[in-house]
Amino acid sequence: MTTTNDVPARPGVQVGSASEFTLFFTVLPGHAQALRDALRDLQNSPGYRPGDYEVPIASIHEARFVLFDDDTRLLFATSFDGPWDAYMEDFAAKPLQLFAAIFEHVEGFHGLPDVAAVKSFILGAQVSAAAYARNYPGTVKEHRRALRLAAAFQQVLDDPRAEEALSHPALKPLLDEASVA
Amino acid sequence: MTTGDDVTLDLDDIQSGALRERPSPYVGRYLLLRLDDVAQGRELVRRLHALLEDQRSASPSATRAWLTVAFTYEGLKALGVPPSSLDSFPREFREGMAARAQELGDVGESGPERWEPPLGSPDVHVAVSVLAPDPPALEAVAERARSRYADLASVAVVWRQDCYQLPSGRTSFGFKDGIGNPDIEGSGLVPRNSRERPIKAGEFILGYPDETGSLAPMPIPDVLGRNGTYLVFRKLHTNVAAYRRYLRDRARDRQEERLLAAKMVGRWPSGAPLALAPDRDEPSLGADPHRNNDFAYGDDPGGFKCPAGAHSRRANPRDSLESELTTDTRLHRMVRRGTSYGPQLPDDVLDDDGADRGIIFVFAGAHLKRQFEFVKTQWLNDGIFIGAPAERDPLVGAHQQPTDFTMARRPIRRRLRDVPPFVVTRGGEYCFAPGLRALRWLGELDT
Ligand code: HEM
């Protein structure tokens, strides 16, 4: 049995609630085209099509796969709500299987015997960013809520009675936003 | 990966504390021992092992008390366990709870430098807990245990804590505790939650397949790890007067006070879950073991009945996170065996009487990190997972600064501001409770 007792924690760089999660893999010889095809299929599947905004993994802000070095290497880069290392076994249980069609074309994925092996597969690929910055705080959940709220506010503003309604003192913070919203 | 649907648990070898429910009500005692001599330490282990063997062979109805024996990492060292074996324990266990304080939120008033001695120090080697249905039975077993170490001059009792469970099952904040425990595959106990498949035994006992299909990392040799479980105990002081006063100040009337308190816990004082009884307490529901844990949150994603930030829902979100794919809640469960300590603050008293009261929190599981530490750090001490990063568990969260607590409500959500911390960590330890054969192995070491 593999033991991962001593794998040091490398939670990635965290800014606010999100941490960057960056993995570098080596593409199996002869698998470049199959991997490109798998990535295209992913891109065309519901949730991943540009504009779908419904990536099944609810706690990532965005994610990208990049083939580089003449398709011999694969980068996976994302921003994750929370310290991703705490979720390693969870990744092994679900999301990793979701991406199995992609990862089966990189070194080390095939025949992973147990969760300890999956952990070392991920840790072996992870590199912490040397610099990482974000342009907004908050989690994916808060953003979705904020966007819903912004859309509702626009609806209010489009109503001709909005000005009168928003002049109630309790609504002053909203009125302050209303002129430019 | 292996699947283990038909596991047979070696129930005779597993210490009863992990899987067996306890008598209720009960009284109990925790003892911590220091071993100053390897040979006498091993002699103690052999004698405790004999006691546990007696306990095992007694018929369940004749059993008048329950003894559990566990060791800290320092304790295993003091017994002369070989280095290769010591090194095979998980990092968290080897470091011990005090070393994890920063991570766990045990800082400030809860920091190890302020813990009750000798908690968190290298002097804690063996933890013994004795539970019995009444004080005479407790004294009888405690005396039997004492007679096993009284003549061992190099075995010192370094800490002692009496505890109890009230007939109502309620602890110091006034809520029934010890209800939400997982159904475990192969335990032989009747499942209590029809909304959830029983959890694999390997999540709680070493040597069996767990929810990932693998075996939890086990210390070597095999005989030492098999049928063992990790125990976490924490002495948690509860500031009951401050808690009551806070609720009194925020509520319009006594009825709202009771509702706010229930929203913080996720259950009513009787134990009735908000998920099944959203508007008022239902004592018959709280008292019914076949109904009081038979629920999920799927019909209440917004938290109108039970807030997403309530203690119980944080500590076990059940199906709340199912659609998110990030988290498999089955990987973050625990068996809890908490008890009360200290006198209860009489009803309606709002001023602190200076007494030390609270709970001895006890966790049993196969993974310190992804069970106890994960729940404590990601779910209780943080709010990222519910999209409220600034909020902590309103009842037990480790916050130095006051936190907010939000309750979904129509037409407008209710938010409690400036919830102060109500719980202070007085100390604790990470322990390993070996199976009976492993205990014998420890007692017979001859390194
Ligand atoms: C003084 C501190 C604490 C108090 C007063 C307290 C109190 C309670 C109460 C009243 C319940 C509801 C009854 C029940 O389901 O049994 C509960 C449930 C629970 N608590 Fe705590 N608790 C404390 C600390 C903790 C800590 C530190 C953890 C974990 C690290 C924890 C984990 C849980 C879990 C897992 C449940 C069951 C949730 C479920 O399955 O629905 N508690 N607690």
From TrEMBL, chain A:
It comes from the Bacteria. This is Uncharacterized protein.
TrEMBL record, chain B:
Keywords: Iron, Metal-binding, Oxidoreductase, Peroxidase. Belongs to the DyP-type peroxidase family. One of its GO terms (molecular function) is peroxidase activity. This is Dyp-type peroxidase. It comes from Occultella glacieicola. Residues 58-135 form the DyP dimeric alpha+beta barrel domain. Residues 271-327 are annotated as: Disordered. Residues 278-293, 316-327 have a biased composition (Basic and acidic residues). Its cofactor is heme b.
